[in-house]
Amino acid sequence: MSRALNRGLEAAASPFRPGFWRSPLRGPRLTAILSTALLIGLPLVLLTGLLSYAAYNPDLGGNDRTPERGWLGFYLFAWPTDPHWLYRLNQGVHVTLGIALVPVLLAKLWSVFPLLFAWPPARSVTKAVERISLLLLVGSVLFECVTGLLNTQLDYLFPGSFYTLHFYGAWVFFAALIVHIGTRLGKLRRGLCDEGGEELRAPDPDPPTLSRRGAIGLVGAGSALLTAVTVGQSFGGPLRRTALLAPRGGPYPDDGPNGFPVNRTVASAGIGAAELGDGWRLTVRGPERSMVLSRADLLALAQHSARLPIACVEGWSTGDLHWSGVRLADLAALVDADPGRGVFVESAQLRGAFRAVSLRGNQVRDGRSLLALRVGGADLSPDHGYPARVVIPAAPGVHNTKWVTRLSFEREGRQS
User: Which pairing describes strands 404-408 and 282-285: parallel, antiparallel, or unpaired?
Assistant: First the structure.
């Protein structure tokens, strides 16, 4: 009698038993509403993420972080320089929307959590495919969410390159999402009408303490709050002060022309005083000719200006900053190089990724693409790339290379 009672209690307390899940909030309508929100938001996050990868021009030599991508890079194209705020907008949407959807994602997973314990796990081939796609979908979206959030805070706690891991994770998510939509779309329609979905309803629910409408409102409030403390990092001016979740969302380093965020400082890049002093020289190479220029030589050349933002993959960006320096196209002309062949840019930095990048011909030809020497009328600060840095319209921040030492115009951006 005692053993039978114990077995009954164990069965009742097992997550594999429907009676274990007793929340009165779970049901097909709640799950369907949350799913609809994710079905609208997550594909946009995926699209902007893939566009972000394209903005790195990964088919150019030196730029690729995922050399084995194969046919997954079928969609790559020459990233444009107009409008100049394109990358800023893309990453602002990608990061802000991704963070805003975190409460919705967690609520959706909670709403279907009992299904993860359904036993047996598959009663047919269709059910088996559905469960496998669900496993891949949940696993990939959580992986993308965690690695993405860590990246926004510049915390690389995971092994390997963020770019490689995030890129492949995105494609796993895409494949699993397509299968999941194909197998669950009908249930989604019925769920919005609060029909079917009996497996989601608790057979013996606890007394309600919150209505389903209240639960949806709570999730929405969480998303709104996360948006409010994130979106400001994609804007210049006072709104940036509200970006509490941004890695550089606090006060600017100073209030002068160089008072905008920094990801990699001189110290973190491993650059010493010798690389920044009077002995610094820029080597400019063409197909048959090369020149070595001091900073004074560069200042003696025709100076041009451009108003461009710095926008980083982590989601933060500046407003339009006033840069001045020498056009890349003019430097190409100095060594009789065709700017349409692109340029290979090398930096003095010793640590960190993107110590050298390839830029396309359309980027070099753009009159706003500069080897910048000054910002806001003042010399660049060491942390912002003194003696010289590249600034390119619509390019990711890491392609606006700091502490430039060599420009090789005879090396077009070769296909990787």
Answer: parallel
- Predicted TM-score (pTM) of the model is 0.89
User: Terminal CA-to-CA distance of the chain, rounded, Å?
Assistant: 73
The more confidently predicted of residues 362 and 259 is 362
Q: Which residues of 222-299 form beta strands (DSSP E)?
A: 282-285, 290-293
| Alpha helices (H) in 112-254, listed in sequence order | 125-152, 162-192, 212-228
- Return the residue matching tokens 């840069």: 323
Which run of H or of E encompasses 100?
helix 86-100
**Distance between CA atoms of 383 and 361, rounded to whole angstroms?**
28
- Tens of pLDDT, residue by residue over 30-72, are 999 999 999 999 999 999 999 999 999 998 877 887 878 889 9
Higher local confidence (pLDDT), 248 or 99: 99
Q: At what angle do helices 212-228 and 86-100 cross, to 10 degrees?
A: 140
Helical H runs in 112-161? 125-152
Angle at which helices 86-100 and 28-55 cross, to 10°: 150
Q: Hey, what's the torsion of the CAs at 160, 163, 165, 168, to 10 degrees?
A: -150
pLDDT at 402: 96
Coil, helix or strand for 313? coil
